[in-house]
Amino acid sequence: MRAVIVGGGLVGCAVALELARRGVAATVLERAVPGAEASSAAAGILAPRVEAHGDASARALGLESLALYEGWVASLGADVGLVRSGVVVVSGASPDRSALSLEGAPLDRLVPGLAARQAWYLPDEGRLDTRRLVGAVHAAAAAAGATFRTGVEVVALAAGQVELAGGERMEGTVVVCAGAWTPRVAGMGALPVRPVRGQLVALGGAPAFSPVVFGPGGYVVPRADELVVGSTMEEVGFTRGVTAAGMQEVLRSAVALLPEVGGREVLRHWSSFRPGSPDGQPLVGRTASGWVASGHFRNGILLAPLTARRLVSAMLDDAALPSAWAPERFGVASRP
Ligand SMILES: Cc1cc2nc3c(=O)[nH]c(=O)nc-3n(C[C@H](O)[C@H](O)[C@H](O)COP(=O)(O)OP(=O)(O)OC[C@H]3O[C@@H](n4cnc5c(N)ncnc54)[C@H](O)[C@@H]3O)c2cc1C
User: pLDDT by residue (tens digit) across 252-263?
Assistant: First the structure.
């Protein structure tokens, strides 16, 4: 088999890595550079219990992917800042049946300066540095034999081939991993994937705590020497940019959670587009135009290892994919 992967975000790089390790000649076609979009922009939270929002299949698949993470990262041979830091959720209602209620001194020790007297704690959730992760998966895929062509845009799909801007055609088993842009590739069909803009701000200074902190209006993610705070959820199409109102929203929410954050220097701000899906779960499977892995919405970093493993097993071993991820659930035809 020869595979042609459209899009070199984390999902496309992870699929290319898995295919290359299984001996398939895989070529990734990326119109910018690997990780240019949502994947390196993401906050890097691995929180299946919080992000499932009570959906049993989302929780189970998120936990399955999280369980793969340490082994997957070890196989990359790079430090991507992966840590099972736990997650603290400031909310009246328990986010998950396994959440522990914390208050008083134990909570103060876990997150000094938190402006809440009671919170929920999920000790097994994790976080990582997404820029380092995308770089490591890209490098590992290339080392395993995958080919990356950057600065090339796929404009159309047809049976077993893609067409690039400029007219060049490439043949192979097509896998579309074009994130929020997936339905824009001509011939892909009407997939219900849409852009949902998220804005993030990095604040300087080493954090005094390790868990990710979720509040009612946003989250604070500690990294080695900075805090990343976010994020907006905006239906603005593909309008790029960071806005005054967006920064105000994420900074106000972060300062309300942790007042000391207000004194930190703003280092960077950025935004990108989550590939949104109607039910928040991805579309991974076979369509009339080829294979697709898209629509990972708020959890594409978390779900990347499982997506790659399950998709490549379906492609090479005819293994079943999770029904919760089936594109057919939105009426998308599975075969030509
Ligand atoms: C602000 C924000 C915070 C987030 N935080 C988290 C988090 O904490 N945890 C988590 O699990 N997830 C998080 N996410 C979600 C996560 O980033 C995405 O679900 C994931 O990155 C999607 O990966 P992808 O490879 O499908 O898409 P992308 O990373 O967007 O990659 C798609 C790639 O396809 C390329 N492309 C598109 N069209 C074409 C074409 N026609 N030809 C060639 N190339 C093309 C693009 O250039 C791009 O590089 C966050 C997202 C955002 C925006």
Answer: 999 999 999 999
Residue with tokens 């990356």: 148
| Domains of the chain and CATH, by start | 1-84+126-193+277-336 (3.50.50.60), 87-123+194-276 (3.30.9.10)
Instruction: Report the residue count for the chain.
Output: 336
Task: For Cα atoms 272, 278, 279, give the angle at the middle one, nearest 5 degrees.
Answer: 105
Continuous H helices in 77-221: 105-110, 130-143
What pTM was computed for the model?
0.98
Spatial separation of the C-alpha atoms in residues 321 and 323, rounded to whole Å: 6
Q: How far apart are CA 14 and CA 7, in angstroms?
A: 11
Atom of ligand 1 nearest to the CA of 232: 1
The token pair at 181 is 């842009």
End-to-end CA distance of the chain: 19
How far is the C-alpha of 8 from the C-alpha of 37, rounded, in Å?
9
**Ligand 1 neighbourhood includes 315 CB (under 6 angstroms):** no
Q: Is the CB of 296 within 6 Å of ligand 1?
A: yes
335: pLDDT strictly greater than 80: no
